[in-house]
Specification:
With about 70 residues, the protein is an alpha+beta fold. It has 3 helices and 4 strands; from the N terminus they run αββαββα. The chain has helices at about 5, 25-30, 55, and strands spanning about 10-15, 15-20, 40-45, 50. The longest helix is centred in the middle third of the chain and has 9 residues, at about 25-30. The protein is globular and about 25 Å long.
Length: about 70
C-alpha cells in the first residue's frame, strides 16, 4: 500500500450502505475483531472503486469470517 492509502480515511459497505470513516489501523483491528472479513468491500479516496478488503489489508487479516449462524 502507498503512504497515501495508509493515511487515508477508509469506508466499508455494510448491507450496501457506506460506513466510516476509519483509519487503516482501525480497519485492521476490525478484521482482528471479526467485524469485517476479506469479502467486504472497502474504499478510500485514492482508489478508483470499492475493492474487496483482502486486496488492501492482506491475507493475515483478511481471512473470511465463519458464518455466525453456525456457532
Amino acid at each position: 500500500l502507498t503512504e497515501a492509502l495508509m493515511s487515508a480515511e477508509w469506508y466499508w459497505l455494510d448491507r450496501g450502505k457506506p460506513q466510516g470513516p476509519c483509519t487503516f489501523e482501525e480497519m485492521r483491528r476490525f478484521f482482528r475483531e471479526r467485524r469485517l472479513d476479506g469479502r467486504d468491500l472497502v474504499w478510500a479516496a485514492h482508489l478508483p472503486d470499492w475493492v474487496p478488503a483482502r486486496t488492501v489489508v492482506g491475507p493475515v487479516y483478511a481471512l473470511p469470517v465463519p458464518d455466525r449462524t453456525s456457532w
